[in-house]
Amino acid sequence: MQASVATLEQDRISLPASAVERASTRDRSGFWLVAAAIVGLLLKLAIAYSTFGTNDAVTFYSFARSLSDHGLEWTYHHGVVWLASASIFNHPPLTAYFLRFIYHLAHEEFFRTNGLTFPFLLRLPGIIADFVVVLVMLHMSRADAGLRRHRWAIALLALSPVSLMVSGFHGNTDPVMVLFLVLASYMCVREQPWLCGLFFALSCQIKVIPLLFFPTFFFFWAYRRSIVPFLLPFCVTCLLLWSEPLLNFPALFIKNVISYGSYWGIWGITYWLRLTGLSTFSLVWFEGFTPAQTIIVTLLKALIVGSVLTISWRRRALDGRGLIESIAYGWVIFFVFSPGVCAQYMVWLAPFVLILSPTFYAWLTATSSLFLFFFYNVIAHGLPWYLAVSTNQLNTVWTPWTAWPWAALILGMVFLWRNARKANPSLRLFSLTTVKAE
Question: What distance in Å separates the CA atoms of residue 417 and residue 329, rounded to the nearest whole number?
Fold first, then answer.
């Protein structure tokens, strides 16, 4: 009897000790993840401070000068008259206000004296955004057992060569858009429709591509009878920040920003069509397409939008993590079928694919890093990189490397579907049946 009591007492003591040990392990891994995020932050800051970046930095500086001298409407209408190769300003007003702000900062004596140039200030928000995304992912992993088991993937995100090259070197606003989209998704996990609407609206103020996922958020909150708390902050924020063009030059805003498409012939299906050598597919540009190019671009865009709509409707009953996975599926479909993808876009899907499948994320990071290294190395004319200028003459050299991440995305899409069918044999590809949480 005494032995049994002693055994019970020992078990009662050992259980809390085991729980404390697991908590201690999580705390240690959390510490190292934050340390990795700080290392990534410092590396990107060092790269941004010691380099000029790509010709995007030149283009943004030209836009900022035009915005400061002539205003938003003039810049939407005329672009940059002295920079014909990048003449169209296709960014929402908030980005325009940011560019004008850092343009003036860069001309202040304090910033000039300390080497805080326009290209550095352009990259700074994206570098900070990457750091915050890692912290959000770490916070999510504390309540998400699946993500917690794969914290190595968060460490890979923190030190990802993709974000080092895009956020640290390239010079664009894409990482900030990703941050706001991640925060909007996280608010679905937290069941906070107001904040979700606000952050989603802010993501659309950096780039308009997040509007692709409006149905995903809309159906998610509508299913939970919380559509008004989501729509109200989203609509108010968008109307306020888009008020200048919507009230004064709406057609110009829709043409430049909402209707903008990417480059034909440098990625995926359009790249392989270009390789046929047929003259109707040979143009590498974002406008002035031949009739055949226009038809293909329209069909591919319709396929992407239709697929995202279907996924959003079918998966609307799933929880917040399910919404993040729906966005990941949408991104994968977008990148597989998109008529054009630029180098900096490779940061768009990273956090979402990580949550969907850490192993897939690792392969995607490896292949994207390979593509980006050769892209930047070609346009910078070799190491060390300081200024990298992408031209039509050079795209034949680096575009073959886009096949690596594109192939990884296709294989990932196939394996994801196979695993989904294995988990749910009744699942059908062409169906509108609602997918229920298990």
Answer: 10
Domain assignment of residue 4, yes or no: no
Cα–Cα distance between 147 and 352 in angstroms, integer? 12
**Helices 118-143, 55-70: inter-axial angle, 10-degree rounding:** 110
pLDDT at residue 85, rounded to an integer: 53
Q: Which residues of the chain have pLDDT under 70?
A: 1-26, 81-87, 438
pLDDT on residue 430: 84
Q: Is residue 18 part of a domain?
A: no
* pLDDT value for 330: 98
Cα–Cα distance measured from residue 405 to residue 367, given in angstroms and rounded to the nearest whole number: 5
Asked if the structure places residue 430 within a domain, the reply is no
Whole-angstrom distance, CA of residue 340 vs CA of residue 122: 24
Residue 306 lies in a domain: yes
pLDDT of residue 225: 97
Which tokens hold the place of 39? 């290392």
- CA 86 to each of CA 57, 78, 80, 221, 285: distance values in angstroms, whole numbers, following the listed order: 11, 11, 7, 39, 11
Strand partners, 388: 54
Domain that holds residue 234: 29-423
Task: Locate 267 and state its tokens.
Answer: 């990625």
SS in 3 state form for the chain?
CHHHHHHHHHHHHHHHHHHHHHHHHHHHHHHHHHHHHHHHHHHHHHHHHHCCEEHHHHHHHHHHHHHHHHCHHHHHHHCCCCCHHHCCCCCCHHHHHHHHHHHHHHCCHHHHHCCCCHHHHHHHHHHHHHHHHHHHHHHHHHHCHHHHCCHHHHHHHHCCHHHHHHHHHHCCCHHHHHHHHHHHHHHHHCCCHHHHHHHHHHHHHHCCHHHHHHHHHHHHHHHCCCHHHHHHHHHHHHHHHCHHHHHHCHHHHHHHHHCCCCCCCCCHHHHHHHCCCCHHHCCCCCCCCCHHHHHHHHHHHHHHHHHHHHHHHHCCCCCHHHHHHHHHHHHHHHHHHCCCCCHHHHHCCHHHHHHHCHHHHHHHHHHHHHHHHHHHHHHCCCCCCCEECCCCCCHHHHHHHHHHHHHHHHHHHHHHHHHHHHHCCCCCCCCCCCCCCC
> Do you know the residue count of the chain?
438
CA distance 358 to 149: 10
Domain count, the chain: 1
